[in-house]
């Protein structure tokens, strides 16, 4: 579960930095947020597949680490 927490934290941090950089360039807060959400809407099928595989690998790692901790107290 730590892997998911770190991943979520890093993604959130990147989104905040991206919004702040857009605001420095002169966009309003709402325009900066919409600018970041547009990238999600415009992803291609290959990018969705790659993201899905990435999250599957993260899930597999989290499950295997959890089983390893349960077997070795």
TrEMBL record:
<dbReference type="Pfam" id="PF26310">
    <property type="entry name" value="YczF"/>
</dbReference>
<feature type="transmembrane region" description="Helical">
    <location>
        <begin position="45"/>
        <end position="63"/>
    </location>
</feature>
<keyword id="KW-0472">Membrane</keyword>
<protein>
    <recommendedName>
        <fullName>YczF</fullName>
    </recommendedName>
</protein>
<keyword id="KW-0812">Transmembrane</keyword>
<keyword id="KW-1133">Transmembrane helix</keyword>
<dbReference type="InterPro" id="IPR058725">
    <property type="entry name" value="YczF"/>
</dbReference>
């Amino acid at each position: 579960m730590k892997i998911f927490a770190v991943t979520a934290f890093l993604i959130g941090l990147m989104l905040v930095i991206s919004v702040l950089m857009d605001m420095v360039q002169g966009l309003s807060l709402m325009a900066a947020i919409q600018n970041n959400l547009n990238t999600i809407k415009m992803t291609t099928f290959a990018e969705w597949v790659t993201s899905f595989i990435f999250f599957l690998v993260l899930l597999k790692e989290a499950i295997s680490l959890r089983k390893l901790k349960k077997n070795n107290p």
